[in-house]
Every structure is written in structure tokens, then in C-alpha cells.
Sequence to fold (246 residues):
Amino acid sequence: MQTPDPKLKANSRVALVTGGAGRIGAIVVQSLAAAGYAVAIHANRSLYEARETARQFEAAGVRSIAVTANMREEGPVRAMVHRVADHFGRIDALVTCASIYHAGPFEDVTAEDLRAHYDVNCIGTFVTAQEVGAVMIHQASGGSIVTMGGCAIDQPQLDDAAYVPSKGAIPALTRSLAVELAARNPRVRVNCVLPGPVARPADRATDTLEQVAHTVMFLLAHECLTGVCLPVDGGQSITHQTPAVG
Fold:
């Protein structure tokens, strides 16, 4: 666990991270806690891990709560946001890391496969951001939302026909949310990170996830940025190959 910066007013800001118990989400949660945020860690199947992380944060003096909702169910997602807002009294940051990924041959992809990916990866992101945005627009300081897309939209791979469209919608969703929420409170910003694979030795695999987390923190912090979709892929999106970095 990273140690919170003692120079920051402890837990003065509140962040909600969907999918905060695994991979990118878990590292984003650690980065937020280290930066002085109180954290709400959303999980669905990984609720035990989310609760354990929240327990460790609380023991270290970081206000934290684990929350759960199936991202395919609108009512529970909205209720989850309200639970966070009621618990902490505000929400200053939202990072939407919750997603599903199921690969399969193109011939086997069904309409239900597409719906499942859209429901979690796109619609779940929208509902969470819409509900959090409704909290942020009533805060004098506004707030910052970072969505999680994917560089696969520029280079679709075989067997990803259900996943890629659901992530491809995220940049358009991000820009639409940025316009809608800024019209209601100019201090509410919405940006997007587009993670992509970067070739690295196996023992440095976490480095890429940490770079994504650094980018999330950058977008949360910079008040002049909104509607930005930033690739973090080691140049893959412009070279059309996976470069050997590091």
C-alpha cells in the first residue's frame, strides 16, 4: 500500500472507482489514496477483495468504503452512487474501471454477447457518470470524471467482436458527458484514458498499469482539460505495432 502524502489534507477529497478491486482499478485506488483522497471501492464479483482493501486503508487512516452493484442493473448502480455520496457527503472524482471482456470466434458472437459488453462497459459507465455528475454539479468545486476506453478501437483484434464496439463508444460518451455536465457546472470535467498493450518483460507487467494510473491522476488534477481522450499505449496507436518499450 502506498503511503498517503502527509502534506495533503487527509481524505479532504472523495473518489469513487468502479472495478476498483482488480488490475487497473486497484492501482488507481492506491494512487488516489496516496494522493490524499478518501476512496469508495466498487466491486461486483471481487467484493471480498474490495472490503479487505478498504479495511487496510481504514487501519492506515484513509477513509474508505467498499460498495457493490452489478453494472448491468441501473437501479443498483444509482443506489451505489447515492450510498457513496451519503457516506462521505460529496464525490470529487469518479474513475470508471469496471468492465468485462470475453473473447470468442466471430461466428459465435450473439446479440446477447454484445448486450452484455455494452451494458457493463458503456451503459454502466454512462449511468454511473450521470449519477455522480448529478452530485458534482451541485458542488461549488465541481468534480472530475475519468472514463476508461481502450486503444483496441484503433486496432481491432480477432475474436474481440463483442468487446471492441463497447469500448469504441467510450470516447464519444466521454465528450458528450463533458458538454452536458459543463453546461450545468463549468467546474465538472470529463476525460478518458485509452489503455493499450506495451511490450515489456513479464516481471515489469505492472509498469503499464501504473502508467495508466499516473495518467488518470494527471487528468483528475488538470482543471484546463475536459473532453480529452488520451492513449497510453507506448505509441501503438500511431505506429500500428506494439513497440518494445523499456
In short: The helical segments are 23-34, 47-59, 74-88, 111-136, 163-184, 205-221, 236-239. The longest strand covers residues 188-195. Residues 111-136 form the longest helix (26 residues).
